[in-house]
Design a protein that fits this description.
- It is a single chain.
- By secondary structure, the chain is an all-alpha fold.
- It is elongated and about 60 Å long.
- The protein starts with a helix and ends in an 8-residue tail after the last helix.
- Keywords: Membrane, Transmembrane, Transmembrane helix.
């Protein structure tokens, strides 16, 4: 039964068109994490001001 599910998943994966290339998706994720890092870095000393 599991074998049939694996075969069905492989058949579906062969015909799936990716809307965005994996390398582009990785670059977008990397950029988003860099933005989050910069925002975190910008507020690093806020607690000491009060």
């Amino acid at each position: 039964m599991l074998h049939n599910a694996v075969l069905a998943a492989e058949a579906a994966a062969e015909h799936a068109d990716e809307p965005i290339a994996p390398i582009v998706l990785g670059l977008i994720a990397f950029g988003a994490l860099l933005v989050a890092l910069l925002v975190t870095f910008a507020f690093r000393n806020v607690g000491n001001r009060h």
